[in-house]
Amino acid sequence: MSHDCSHHSAKGVSESRLRLSSVVTFLFVIVELIGGWKAHSLGLISDGVHNFTDGFSLVLSWYALVVARRPATSRNTFGYHRAGIIVALVNAITLILSSLYIMLEAGLRVIHPEPVETTPMIIVALIAVVVNTLIAAWLHQGSEHDINVRSAYIHMVGDALFSLGVALAGLIIRWTGWVYADPLIAFLIGGYIGYASFGIIRETTHILLEGAPRGLNMDQMLSAMQAMPGVENIHHLHVWTIGDGMHALSCHLRVGEMTLSNRAEIVRDLKAMLSIDYSVSHSTIETECGECGMTTLYCAIESPDICHDHVH
């Protein structure tokens, strides 16, 4: 019970910090874009574009946390926990588009280099380092409990590092006059955004395709389930992720001849083990005493006409 309360408390803290972080990010984006335009720094402008997409993702992540609190209904029996997954996918797509734009502009700047005013470039970039670091620190606590907040936290840490890179590019231009340092930093930023975005797309599509939770050792979990006293066989097993940190399982469980109360005890102990040891908090287990016609561990859902009769 205490774990649930602390989890909800962390969600509330994450919402407020995401909201504040998005406001601060958007305000600073204005400063960064104006500074980049005046300094003719593509690196600073690209970092501002990246920060804008991050600010947009912060807003969506905050909204996803709000939506996820809505109760389940007859239309959405699992609730709205996948709102955050959809938001992450949308964010990843927008990030890829922005990365392509940044790298295109960097290529054009290499062909047609422009003089860069290093003083505003360095000053604004260093301020960006401070702002992004502070936002990352705000989000660190919530990142331990929620994958959406964790992704936002990682983005802000990356922003701080790349803002530092823009500042270093400004110093290189000031000391050496090598103006290509600016588009080079912009190209690196665009490449990093695209690389990170593909990882997000891979993770979100895996969840939307009902893939097994990443990091879950299926063989180990299955061995632990089969080792439970009274369990003879497990089949028709499905394990998937509902939303951030919410894993679900359903299976058919064959047990020996026993009373209903003994079956209920086995199911209760099995559910407790799954929740504590494997973070599978939502499990639906159907018990049976005889063969149900299903012999494989994992089954394909082929037709609604197939019916399994069980002796309960």
Structural summary, described in words:
By secondary structure, the chain is mainly α. The protein folds into two domains: 2-208, Up-down Bundle (Alpha-lytic protease prodomain-like); 211-312, Alpha-Beta Plaits. 66% of the residues lie in helices and 10% in strands. It is built from eight helices and three strands, in the order H-H-H-H-H-H-H-E-E-H-E. It has helices at residues 2-39, 42-68, 83-111, 118-143, 147-176, 181-208, 218-226, 260-278, and strands spanning 231-243, 246-255, 280-288. A three-stranded mixed β-sheet has the order 1-2-3. Helix 8 (260-278) links the parallel strand 2 and strand 3 (280-288). Helix 3 packs antiparallel against helix 6. The longest helix has 38 residues, at 2-39. The chain is elongated and about 85 Å long.
In short:
66% of the residues lie in helices and 10% in strands.
Features:
disordered C terminus; 312 residues; disordered N terminus; Alpha-lytic protease prodomain-like; elongated; three-stranded mixed β-sheet; Alpha-Beta Plaits; mainly alpha
Class derived from helix and strand content: mainly alpha
CATH topology of the largest domain: Alpha-lytic protease prodomain-like
Largest beta sheet: strand ordering? 1-2-3
Total count of domains: 2
Radius of gyration: 25 Å
Give me the number of helical elements. Answer: 8
CATH architecture descriptor text of the largest domain: Up-down Bundle
What share of residues are in beta strands? 5-15%
The whole-number mean of residue pLDDT values reads 78
Compute the separation of the termini in Å. Answer: 32 Å
Characterize the largest beta sheet: strand count, sense, and whether it forms a barrel: 3 strands, mixed
**Strand count:** 3
What's the level 1 CATH class of the largest domain?
Mainly Alpha
Q: Which percent bin holds the helix content?
A: 55-70%
Q: What's the CATH superfamily of the largest domain, by name?
A: Cation efflux protein transmembrane domain
Shape: elongated
The ordered string of helix (H) and strand (E) elements is HHHHHHHEEHE
